[in-house]
Write a structure and sequence with these properties.
Layout lengths: L2 E3 L5 E2 L6 E2 L2 E3 L1 E2 H9 L1 H8 L8 H23 L6 E3 L4 H5 L5 E9 L2 E11 L9 E8 L6 H18 L6 E5 L4 E5 L5 H16 L18 H11 L10 H9 L5 H5 L20 H10 L2 E3 L10 E10 L4 E9 L6 E6 L6 H13 L4 E5 L2 H14 L6 H8 L2 E2 H5 L3 E2 L7 H7 L11 H14 L2 H30 L13 E3 L3 H4 L13 H7 L2 H7 L6 H15 L4 E6 L16 E14 L4 E13 L22 H12 L5 H12 L5 H14 L1 H13 L2 E11 L2 E9 L4 E6 L5 H6 L6 E4 L11 E4 L1 H14 L4 H24 L3 H4 L2 H13 L6 H12 L1 H4 L13 H17 L5 H19 L4 H7 L4 H10 L1
Parallel strand pairs: 5-8, 6-7, 9-10, 12-19, 13-16, 16-17, 20-22, 23-26, 26-27
Antiparallel strand pairs: 1-4, 2-3, 7-8, 8-9, 10-11, 12-18, 13-14, 14-15, 21-22, 23-24, 24-25
Helix pairs in contact: 1-2, 1-5, 5-6, 15-17, 16-17, 22-24, 22-35, 23-24, 24-34, 25-34, 27-28, 28-30, 28-31
Length: 937
C-alpha cells in the first residue's frame, strides 16, 4: 500500500476536530484481496491498522509466501540463464528482448498498484507484432476460488495500463503439484473494474463501512477487534446465517440489534397446505432464545434412533479431498467406546474406510449420527471411490440413511447460541475442549505441520480433538433426542434446561411474568406492591369510602341463599344390588343440596336440606344410594352441574367466568375446582355416548372427516372430526399420523368425504374429495400465474363443469338419478384438458393432480346423499375453534379429551335439533332415546 499526497484545501477531521489533509490512496492488490473477503478489513488495512493477530491467518500467509518462493524458483529454473530478472525492470528493459521472466514485478498506473508474483514475456511470433505479457499468481491451495481469478484479473488490468496494451491471458500456479491454470482475464475485466471503483469509494470515505461479521472472521487478523465491537453494539451480524439482504431488511424496519429483533417474533398459524413442509428459519426466534437463555422449539421435531447410535466425526483436508482421520463413538454412559482410524497418506484412505466398515458390522443395528454436511459428503465419496459395501443390511441401511443432526435442529430447535456450530452448542450445554484453540481450521494447520515434522505430539492433538468432537456430538444428540421425545413441562430431561414452545408464545406473552428473586426481602416488597394488598391493607386506612366498600362486599358475600325446604326421604326397604331386605339400619344423614331450579320465567338458585337413612347390606356389603337429586354423591345437584357444563362447552365460557357467574347471580360460594370437577365427571358419564355416536356413523353410508391443530402447554396436538348430517364426534391425537382414523373407521364401508390429506386414502372405502378445496387451489394457481393461459383454461373448464353440477343439486338435491348425467360432462372435461399445452409448468401440475385424483373427485355423482364438499366437518371444526380460543392452550391431553367428549354430545344434539342443556339435565346417555322421549311429549 502506498499513499500519494496532493495539495488540497484543509478539511476538519470529524474525530478530533483538527485540520487534516485529504489523502488520495492507491488501490493495491492487498486491498482488493481484503475487500473480496470483508469491506471492513479492506478499510482497516487502508488506514494502516494492525490486527491483534490470528494464528491461522499468520500460518496461511507464511504458507503462501513459501509456496510463492518455491514456485518462482521452479519457473526460474526453466528459463534461459540471464533472462530472469527480479524486481521491476525499467520501461526500456521491459520492451527489450533481453528477459523472459520477471519476478516480484511491481506495477503502478495512476492510482492502481499491483505486486505481481511473476510476469512472463513471450516474444512476438512474427515481425512487426508486439510481445505478449502474461501475469502469474501463485496459490498454495489445490482448489481455485473466484477471488483468486479476480486478483489475477486486477494484476492484468494494472499491467495493461502500464504497458499500454491488452492483457488477455493470465496463469495461476496452484496446489501440491504446482499445476498451472490458464485464465482469460479479459472475461473478468468488467468485474475487476467495478470492484476497483467500489474499493476506491470505500478507502476515500472518512467513515468506516458497517461492521458485519461473516465466515471470513475466523481467518482474519482483525477478528478480536471486530467481534468485540459487534458485542458492544449487539449487532445483527452476530447471528450466523443471516444474509445481507435479510439484515438490510431488518435495518429498514429500525431493527439494528439482536435484542431488538428478539421482541419481533410472533408465532404464525401455518396454512393447511404448508403443514407437511419444513418450517422456515426464524432469526427473531433465535434472538429470543438468546435473550431468554432458553431453548425454543417450533412444531414437533422428530429424531428417530431405533438402534445403536454411532457418533461419527471425520477430519480431512478439503482442498485435497483427502480424509485422514475417522472418529467413531459407540455406547452410552459408562460403556462408551471410541475408535480412531488414522491415515498417514492418501493411499491409506481405503484402509481406514474398510476398518470403519468392519467396525460397523460388529454393531447391532447401527444408526450413524453426524453433524453437518462434511460427513455426508465423506460417506458419499467413499462409496463412490471404493464401493464394495459388505453384505450386511444393517451397515447398508446406516450408510444410506445417516442422521444429520443439523437437519433436525435447523428451523425447529433454537438453542440460545449465535450459530448452530457444534462447538458453540456443546459449550452452552457445558462441554469443554481441552485445547481452547481447537477448531476445524486449526486441525488443518496441525495436519500440515504433522506432514512436515511427523511429530507424535501433533498427531496426538488431532486424535484428541477428534475424540472430543465425538463426545460433544453425543451430548448434543442426546439433548436433541430428549427434546424431541419429551412433553414440554415434564421432568424427563435435565432440570437446568428450560424449553419453550414457540407455538404457544402468543398466549404466554399476554400474562404477567412471575417474579422470582434470590435477594432477601424482595419477595416481601413485591407482595406489598400488589393491587389488592395495597387496597385492602394500605389505602383502606386512609380512605373512608374504601372502608365502606369493603364492608358492603363482605355483607354481600355473607348473604348467600338459605335453606328453602326440608325433604325427608323414605328409607329403602331392599338392597339396591342383591334386592334382599335391609337389616342394618344406620343413623339419619342430613345433607344440603345446592342446585338450580328451572322455571318458565328463568332460573333460581336453591338450597334444599335432605334427610335420609343409609345402611350396608349384610350380604353384598353395598351401601344405600343417596337420593337421585344429588349428582355423583356430591353436595351439588344435576341441574347445577348441567348448567355449568352447558356454559363451558356450548357458550365457550372459561371455568373461572362460570364460577363467578354462579356465585354472583345465584348466591353460591364455589371455587373453580368445583366447576372443573363438573366437567370431568360429565365427560366420564358421557364417554359411552360419544362411542355410540361414532358407531352409528360407521354403520351409515357417509362420513365427513377433517383435522386441526391445538397447542397444549408447549406441545402441538391434533383434533380429528368425524361428522354426518346428524352426528359429530371429536377425538384427540398427539400426532397427525393416520393411526387414530384407521382404528376408528376400519369397518366403514360408505363414502368418506375429506380434503386431500393422504392419510384419508388409507381407509378402504369409497372416497369423495372436497371440490371446494380443489377450486381454491385452482384459483390460487391462476392468481400466481396470471399470464399462464394453460392454467387459466383448466380452471375455467372446471368452473363450468362444477357450476352445472351445483345447479342440478340446487334443483333436485343429492340424488344420483339426476346427477349421473354429469358423468359424460366429466369425461368431456378430462378430454378437453388433455389437449391443453403442457409447456406451462403450472398447467402441467394441475393436469397431473386432476388425473391422479380422478376416481375420487366425482364419486358423489353415483351415490345418493353424498355432498361434493366437506362443509359438515368444517362447520364442526369452527365449533371446536371457538372452544379452542376459550381454552387458550392451557390444558392437557386428558383435559382436551374431556372437552371433546362433551363437545361431541353438544354438536350432535344441535345437528339433531335437540337442546344440549335439556339433554344434560335429563341424565340420559343415549341421544336417540332422549329424542324419542321428546317426540313422545
Amino acid at each position: 500500500m502506498r499513499l500519494r499526497k496532493t495539495s488540497k484545501p484543509k478539511v476538519v477531521d470529524r474525530r478530533n476536530g483538527e485540520p487534516c489533509r485529504v489523502m488520495h490512496m492507491s488501490v493495491t492488490n492487498e486491498l482488493v484481496d481484503a475487500f473480496l473477503k470483508c469491506p471492513t478489513k479492506c478499510f482497516l488495512r487502508s488506514r494502516g491498522e494492525v490486527g491483534t493477530g490470528n494464528y491461522y491467518a499468520d500460518w496461511v500467509r507464511t504458507r503462501n509466501e513459501l509456496f510463492r518462493t518455491q514456485g518462482v524458483e521452479n519457473l526460474a529454473a526453466n528459463v534461459t540463464h540471464g533472462t530472469c530478472v527480479s524486481g521491476t525492470p525499467v520501461l526500456g528493459g521491459v520492451r527489450s528482448p533481453q528477459w523472459q521472466l520477471a519476478t516480484e514485478f511491481h506495477a503502478r498506473s495512476q492510482n492502481l498498484e499491483s505486486f505481481c508474483h511473476a510476469v512472463e514475456r513471450h516474444p512476438a511470433a512474427g515481425g512487426g507484432r508486439a510481445a505478449e505479457f502474461v501475469p502469474i499468481r501463485f496459490v498454495a491451495g489445490n482448489k481455485i476460488a473466484r477471488e483468486d481469478k479476480l486478483l489475477l484479473s486486477f494484476d492484468a488490468r494494472v499491467l495493461s495500463e502500464l504497458l499500454g496494451r491488452k492483457i488477455a491471458l493470465g496463469k495461476i500456479v496452484h496446489g501440491d503439484n504446482y499445476a498451472t491454470l490458464k485464465v482469460k482475464t479479459s472475461d473478468l475485466a468488467g468485474v475487476a473494474s467495478k470492484l476497483t471503483d467500489k474499493i476506491r469509494m470505500l478507502i476515500e470515505n472518512s467513515s468506516p463501512p458497517d461492521l458485519v461479521l461473516n465466515r471470513h472472521c475466523g481467518e482474519c487478523e482483525f477478528q478480536t477487534r471486530c467481534r468485540q465491537r459487534a458485542i458492544e453494539k449487539d449487532d445483527l451480524s452476530r447471528l450466523a446465517g443471516m444474509t445481507e439482504k435479510e439484515r438490510m431488511g431488518f435495518n429498514r424496519k429500525g431493527i439494528f440489534t439482536v435484542t431488538q429483533l428478539s421482541y419481533t417474533f410472533r408465532p404464525r398459524r401455518r396454512p393447511d397446505r404448508s403443514k407437511d413442509k419444513r418450517e422456515r428459519y426464524h432469526h427473531s426466534l433465535k434472538a429470543l432464545a438468546i435473550r431468554e437463555n432458553k431453548i425454543h422449539i417450533v412444531g414437533t421435531p422428530e429424531m428417530k434412533t431405533e438402534g445403536t447410535p454411532v457418533y461419527l466425526d471425520v477430519e480431512g483436508l478439503p482442498d485435497r479431498g483427502f480424509y485422514y482421520l475417522i472418529g467413531v463413538r459407540t455406547g452410552v454412559g459408562q460403556s462408551v467406546a471410541h475408535q480412531s482410524f488414522w491415515a498417514d497418506r492418501p493411499s491409506d484412505e481405503h484402509g481406514i474406510w474398510q476398518a470403519f466398515l468392519s467396525m460397523l458390522i460388529k454393531v447391532e443395528n447401527p444408526i450413524l449420527v453426524h453433524y453437518g454436511s462434511f460427513e455426508s459428503i465423506f460417506l458419499r465419496r467413499m462409496r463412490e471411490r471404493y464401493g464394495g459395501l459388505p453384505n450386511n443390511i444393517g451397515v447398508i441401511k446406516a450408510l444410506e440413511s445417516p442422521i444429520n443432526l443439523v437437519s433436525v435442529i435447523f428451523g425447529q430447535i433454537y438453542f440460545p447460541t449465535y450459530s448452530n456450530r457444534l462447538k458453540e452448542i456443546a459449550e452452552w450445554l457445558g462441554f469443554r475442549w481441552s485445547d481452547d484453540n481447537a477448531s476445524g481450521l486449526q486441525s488443518i494447520v496441525w495436519r500440515i505441520e504433522w506432514e512436515t515434522t511427523r511429530a507424535p505430539l501433533v498427531k496426538e492433538k488431532l486424535i484428541n480433538y477428534n475424540t472430543e468432537d465425538c463426545a460433544a456430538l453425543e451430548l448434543v444428540a442426546g439433548t436433541t433426542a430428549q427434546i424431541c421425545q419429551r412433553e414440554i413441562g415434564s421432568d424427563s430431561i435435565t432440570t437446568n434446561l428450560e424449553i419453550v414452545a414457540a407455538d404457544i408464545l402468543d398466549s404466554k406473552l399476554t400474562r404477567w411474568p412471575k417474579f422470582s428473586t434470590t435477594i432477601q426481602g424482595f419477595e416481601a416488597v413485591n407482595k406489598a406492591a400488589r393491587w389488592d394488598y395495597q387496597r385492602d391493607r394500605v389505602y383502606i386506612r386512609t380512605d373512608e369510602r374504601l372502608k365502606q366498600a369493603k364492608k358492603m362486599r363482605e355483607r354481600r358475600l355473607k348473604g348467600t341463599i338459605r335453606v328453602g325446604k326440608v325433604v325427608a326421604c323414605e328409607p329403602s326397604r331392599v338392597c339396591p344390588r342383591c334386592h334382599k331386605n335391609a337389616t342394618n339400619w344406620s343413623r339419619v344423614v342430613t345433607k344440603c343440596l345446592h342446585d338450580l331450579r328451572f322455571t318458565k320465567c328463568g332460573v333460581t338458585g336453591q338450597l334444599v336440606k335432605y334427610q335420609f337413612r343409609v345402611f350396608r347390606c349384610a350380604t353384598c356389603q353395598a351401601f344405600t344410594p343417596w337420593p337421585k337429586e344429588f349428582w355423583e354423591r356430591s353436595q351439588y345437584g344435576r341441574n347445577l352441574a348441567a348448567f355449568s357444563v352447558f356454559e363451558v362447552i356450548d357458550l365457550c365460557v372459561s371455568l373461572r367466568s362460570v364460577t363467578q357467574t354462579l356465585n354472583r347471580i345465584f348466591g353460591f360460594r364455589m371455587n373453580e375446582y368445583v366447576v372443573r370437577r363438573f366437567k370431568e365427571r360429565a365427560a366420564d358419564y358421557h364417554r359411552a355416548t360419544r362411542e355410540n355416536i361414532l358407531a352409528g356413523m360407521v354403520k351409515g353410508n357417509l362420513i365427513h372427516a377433517d383435522e386441526t391443530r391445538i397447542p397444549l402447554h408447549g406441545k402441538v396436538g391434533y383434533v380429528w372430526v368425524f361428522a354426518t348430517f346428524r352426528e359429530v364426534a371429536y377425538y384427540y391425537s398427539a400426532t397427525r399420523e393416520g393411526t387414530l382414523i384407521q382404528s376408528a373407521l376400519h369397518e366403514f364401508k360408505g363414502v368418506l368425504v375429506s380434503d386431500f390429506y393422504t392419510v384419508y386414502d388409507s381407509i378402504p372405502c369409497a372416497q369423495q374429495k372436497c371440490l371446494l378445496h380443489l377450486m381454491r387451489d385452482l384459483n390460487d394457481a391462476v392468481l400466481d400465474n396470471p399470464y399462464d393461459e394453460g392454467a387459466k383454461t383448466i380452471a375455467t373448464a372446471f368452473a363450468e363443469l362444477l357450476r352445472d353440477i351445483v345447479q342440478t343439486t340446487d334443483r333436485w338435491g343429492l340424488k344420483s338419478r339426476f346427477l349421473r348425467k354429469h358423468l359424460a360432462d366429466v369425461a368431456r372435461f378430462y378430454k378437453r384438458i388433455s389437449k391443453t399445452d403442457r409447456q406451462s409448468e403450472a398447467a402441467s401440475k394441475l393436469k397431473d393432480r386432476l388425473e391422479k385424483d380422478r376416481e375420487k373427485l366425482f364419486t358423489f355423482l353415483s351415490h345418493d346423499g353424498i355432498p361434493w364438499n366437506n362443509n359438515n366437518a368444517e362447520h364442526a371444526i369452527k365449533a371446536f375453534a371457538r372452544l379452542r380460543r376459550a381454552i387458550e392452550g392451557l390444558s392437557t391431553p386428558k383435559g382436551i379429551e374431556q372437552y371433546l367428549i362433551l363437545l361431541s354430545v353438544c354438536q350432535t344434539c344441535k345437528y339433531s335439533g335437540l337442546d344440549f342443556l335439556d339433554f344434560l339435565r335429563s341424565g340420559e346417555t343415549d341421544i336417540g332415546t332422549f329424542a324419542a322421549s321428546r317426540r313422545t311429549r
